[in-house]
Amino acid sequence: MAIWPSMPGILWAADRKVDMMARRQSRAARIAVLIGLPLLLIAGIAYFNARTFTGDYGSVARDDVVANHATAQRELDRLEALLAEKRHHNAGLRADSVNLDLLDERARAELGMLRSDEVFLLEE
Questions:
Q1: Is the pLDDT of residue 7 over 70?
Q2: HSE toward the beta carbon, residue 2, CA cutoff 13 A
Q3: Where are the domains positioned within the chain?
Q4: What are the distances in angstroms from CA 9 to CA 12, 14, 18?
Q5: What is the mean pLDDT of residues 63-80?
Q6: Measured between alpha carbons, how far is 44 from 62 in angstroms, rounded to an integer?
Q7: Collapsed DSSP state (helix, strand, coil) of residue 105
Q8: Is pLDDT at 58 greater than 90 in this prediction?
Q9: Are 60 and 54 in contact (CB under 8 A)?
Q10: C-beta separation of 61 from 55 below 8 A
């Protein structure tokens, strides 16, 4: 403790040096915050903007879902038309109204057989 009163100039210079270092550090910290914070915000905005278009729920994924839905709808319409055609074709085979000509035609088409008095024409 005896050293403090005898060296006031040295202590003042050391305090001044510490203050300058603290100012430099705080100035560097301020510059880092002034530059780093906007860069961080810009990077965050860019990331979320990119995810808006390319993410799992983004615009590109939505377009893919719409295209898949349209394809599935066309396939459903085609299958429903095929089902209606098959139902119409098989309507004559019901037990309450059997059309014998239709039944005969279907049986021979499935078995691949012809009667001896029939003529077979092959279409290409």
A1: no
A2: 0
A3: 10-54, 56-113
A4: 5, 9, 14
A5: 95
A6: 23
A7: helix
A8: no
A9: yes
A10: yes
